[in-house]
Amino acid sequence: MKILTFTSLFPNSLQPNYAGFVLQRTSHMAEPRGNHVEVVAPLPYIPAFLRRTAKGRMASIPSVETIAGLRVHHPRYPLLPKISMPLHALLMYSGCHGVVRDLHREHPFDCIDAHYVFPDGVAALLIGRSLRVPVSLTARGTDIHTFSRFFTIRPQIRWALRNADAVAAVSSSLARIILQLEPSLPPPVEIGNGVDTTRFFPEDRAVARKMIGVDQDAKLIVSVAALRHVKGCDLLVRAASQLKASTPGCRLLFVGDGPELAALRRLAAELSCADVCTFVGPVNHEDLRHYYSAADVSCLPSRNEGCPNVVLESLACGTPVVATRVGAVPEILADTETGVVVDPTSESIHQGLRFAMGREWNRAVIASKAKLRSWEQVAEQAEQFLLRSIRKAPGHSHEATAYEDSKSLEVNR
User: Fold this and answer.
1) Looking at residues 37-57, what average pLDDT do you find?
2) Which domains occur in the chain, in start order?
3) Verdict on whether the full-model pTM lies above 0.85
């Protein structure tokens, strides 16, 4: 099968850890499964006078690069932040159509696998219609939770959902929201994320703590998240001010970076808990397991989520999770042996962390449960999803049908 993965959610040479979940699904669906995959990951055009700014560094990303063995194309498109938001999908389409057309001539695609419904999915559908290639959409969270609230964007999202050849969501809660937006749809296919257990696995806690420079007797909580409002880090800082009084010896490590760093530091100072809150900054993906393994518990205090990989990664390292009742979290932590689900309030997070810190957890059992959701399994599910979208599309190719039949034979052997 010849697949075009179309999404702005993809790592690049400047941001190697960005949106690794899309990379994992795509790479596991490529050569290991006999598929030819090209990636188009569009980027906004950066004018020359802005290229020395922080965001201007994106201009240094090459137009074509290789990421994890995949050829990744970065066509540029014009975008004025906030001002051109309603036109985002159309602008993305205009900047990418020529590149996709040329790639399609080189290796005709059987389908376009688009991640993120707006703007990426809308742009992919416009391209797919012009080239007569079926398009599948995978909703991942903010694209549905947040963008559907804007009256200029909501109709575009609904149009995309109606016109896609297949729709998937990373959690059952996201699938329900999609059906509320567009009740005429068949239920979206649920394809959650997986976890790479060759990268995330339990390490000796004492060794891990020594590696990251944490006292052996600390009651350690680790939160791996971008420092953005949607991730609820402010709620965790407020919970930390309560934990400082209720749980002596506790320490919180915030692993990640983002626009709210300064505000979070001010909040911690105002609440007199700056001494127990450490903002570590971004950490190489390869080193995250040391933080998970060192922790007594990890915490994800998000206000909204899709299928958060950090929860799966923590579990794979044998570390229990306290996370808010959003997105796929209740599904992932349905087993009380793996963590605690709380409300997205500081008090609820505080109570959940106190409970988790006071309980004995079987870390070997936690790690074994995480292994049940591998990226190989996700790739198999995603491949079948794409094959069904090809078969459903009008005038689908005989080559794709033959490929689907061959895969069915493999499964039935």
Assistant:
1) 84
2) 2-194+375-412 (3.40.50.2000), 205-370 (3.40.50.2000)
3) yes
Beta bridge partners of 279: 254
Beta strands in 292-391 (DSSP E): 297-300, 321-324, 339-342
DSSP assignment of 256-297 equals: B--TTHHHHHHHHHHTT-TTTEEEEE---GGGHHHHHHH-SE
DSSP single-letter state for residue 323? E
- Give strand pairing partners of 168: 138, 189
CB 158 within 8 A of CB 174: no
pLDDT at site 412: 39
Q: How far apart are CA 210 and CA 214, in angstroms?
A: 6
Please report, to the nearest 10 degrees, the dihedral formed by the alpha carbons of residues 48, 8, 230, 55 taken in order.
-10
Q: At residue 17, what is the residue type? A: N
Strand partners, 219: 250
Please, which residues have CB within 8 angstroms of residue 373's CB and are 6 or more apart in sequence?
A: 192, 193, 194, 195, 312
Max Cα distance, the chain (Å):
67
Residue whose C-alpha is closest to residue 298's, from 373, 223, 207:
223
Residues 126/142, Cβ–Cβ less than 8 Å: no
The angle that helices 122-131 and 154-163 make with each other, rounded to 10 degrees, is 40
